[in-house]
Amino acid sequence: MKIGSIDLGERPVLLAPMEDVTDISFRLMCKKFGADMVYTEFVSSDALIRHVNKTQQKLIVSEEERPVAIQIYGKEVGAMAEAARISEAAKPDIIDINFGCPVKRVAGKGAGAGMLKNIPLMLEITKAVVDAVHIPVTVKTRLGWDVHSQIIVELAEQLQDCGIAALSIHGRTRSQMYTGEADWTLIGEVKNNPRIHIPIIGNGDITSAEMCKDYFDKFGVDGIMVGRGSIGRPWIFREIKHFLQTGNPLPPESFDWYINILKQQVLNSVSKLDERRGILHIRRHLAATPLFKGIPDFKQTRIALLRAETVETLFELLDEIPVKYNLR
Question: Is 101 a catalytic residue?
Fold first, then answer.
């Protein structure tokens, strides 16, 4: 699969952009485990053109994570074009436009998935961003606003006509938010549309290597994006790549091996922020990791993990788990 001149190989697996998740340390970790491309957190065009420091920090990318895309969102044509130019100066490989974020503070103000209610403006913004930069521009969006307006098949052609180099589709409507199951049938319909010639990337509910291969086979997409399935589990990319290459599941590592990955995530987060904020930031990963799923009587340990306020306390709790629950 190629996005412009960027060759991602056959059946690439990408790390989806996620606010408060895909910071540079997590991107680098997922890259280490085999993610073929990674995306920054959402970058507000309004905040970027106002030079808000916290937003500008999101533009920092490293050579080790390439290819990397900076994802921008907003609802004003001029602001989005200017934000694209500012982002291009940070030297990403791709600019991605977020037309898919469903949260109220974004979509409710007309940006993100809110653009699905104003297609003419969506297309005007897309064309303006494409014209503003010299690197490939891609779009990430959803099936439509709600079950009564699943317009993605027609919309994909319109976005392609604006000059985008690839399209990522989350298999839910905005109204669904993240509930229910992602519906990939319309994603497959977009991919099988003979008028579509850009790569189509599917997204939604990929939580295992077997599912990833099955969806490649069933829907024919060019690439697959993993989002929430990677939170607390950056090694999912290693599992997926192995299964795609061999057809066999990757043998599990020792429990300590996985614990050490989580500990490294903690250290990375603390190093980037500070101890208090770093631990707060990483709690999402500790809460979501499937590593502790199914361990009997784990509730009190989970609560203690999420209440820990120092690295020392957190690591002591993590080190106790294999011994306490006989998981080595």
Answer: yes
